[in-house]
Fold this protein.
Amino acid sequence: MTPALLLLLLLSADPRGDAGSTGCWKACQRHVQEPSLRAKVCRLCITSGGTQDWLLALAEMKPVPQSSLRSALTDEDWRVRWAAVRAGAKARKVSEPLALAEWVTGLPAEADLLACITAARAAAEAGSTPSAFFQKAGGKGAAAAARVQARREAIREALEVELYAEDSATRYRALSHLATFLKVPPARVVIDAMRGRPETADEIAAKALRELAEHGGHSVGRMLVEAAQPGDQERVNRLFAIYSKELQALREDLSSGDPIQRRSAVFKLRLYGPLAQRELEQALQSPDVQVRESAARGMAQAEGLTLMEAAGKRLRSGADLASQRPWLEALAREKKCEEALLALADDPKQPDSVRGEALALLAECDGWLRESARGQRVMPFLDAAQPPLRAGALRALSVGGGEETSDALKAGLEDTAPEVVVAAIETSARRRQMGLADVIADQLGAEHAEVRQAAAQALERLGRDRHVKSLAECLHKDPVPAVRVAVAQTLGQLGGPFAISALSQAAAKDRDSHVQHVSRQALRRLGFFNR
């Protein structure tokens, strides 16, 4: 092998721990002895991405090099053995199950372990048991399945050794194949494999189960709870102790100032299911909507429920909006969520705040924009006696709609309830209703601070030069810092002499330090403040 070829093989080795090009090359070199044949088929390890295609290529040669195929049947890697069986089937033009059954039954009983392991793993890789897999092998299928069943314990022991391998891909396949072969849950495989092994090996077993759970979108906690039996407590507790240490590191990430780190932490928490219930409940109260939604999904997964089922269970409780909001937000990401949200809005047993939020979140549903009758479905709520329902209906109209939506927004801006006016203002801004900009600017003088703040924020999108003077006066006179902050941000977008003058005065003299800070940032944005 040339140095250049060796380097290429090393670079093309599979990072997941599979055989990769290097392992493929070595196997080909072991079993193909004739130099010219080696040169022809072993290069497939590089050009085909490190598979066993070289064996299938042998099946197409005339004559078929049977000695290489027989040699490959003795390889330590079951994938090479299985590829040799497939190549033999291809050469003989018979089915792969039949070729495998003939190999298993054609060996002396004392020498059939490798063949039986290959059969068990090939069937498991196809998501099947040997008995089902061999049904396509004709008359020899039943005898082959019986041979494999007779070797059940030896196969289990061989795969359990791989379950404790350092390589993650080897562990994953061993656990997946064992669970399928034994027809038991993966957690049951791990618990049984721990019997008689030292506690120092527990961490590898815990990794194997966690990796399989992560790959399948399950939780290790739920898997262990469902698989545990009387007498398993000591081994299950050993696994719980390992996962608890991993949870400790994630708890610190949950309180990180980095939103990406927080979101990553809560996503990882979902992997632990019931073991992370306390942490998931804490994450439900996060100010970050993505963290709350991920926590809700983790709670549902921990309970073995779909998100719809878990949300329905909570929402039937009639609890207040603060505790229900994460479930409503998560529900709004589900398919056909509009029907579930409308059902909640229609339910008089729910608190008005929850019903209103359900209406508002309709705008987040993928199917809501395609709902041709969305206006008709929420218009009745615009006349509801409860302000949260009127506000929620206006927010539901923030996507799509026509003239009836514009009329509804105009009416909402004149509503007596401040939360409805806020919803009308925010929806107008989201829809870029430029014709309502003057009416919204008038709300800078409204009685309620939340209305004034919403108006100031909306003018960042809808405002024009004629609105700057009103905003400047608001920045100077409004008694609420949050309103002045919103005004300063909008003036920083609109600009102009009045804006610069008002921002300069606020940056120097406003009685609230945050207003001063935002005013300075706005001036920098406009290019009029260098310090």
Remarks:
- Residues 346 and 355 are 7 Å apart (CA to CA).
- Residues 3-18 have pLDDT under 50 and may be disordered.
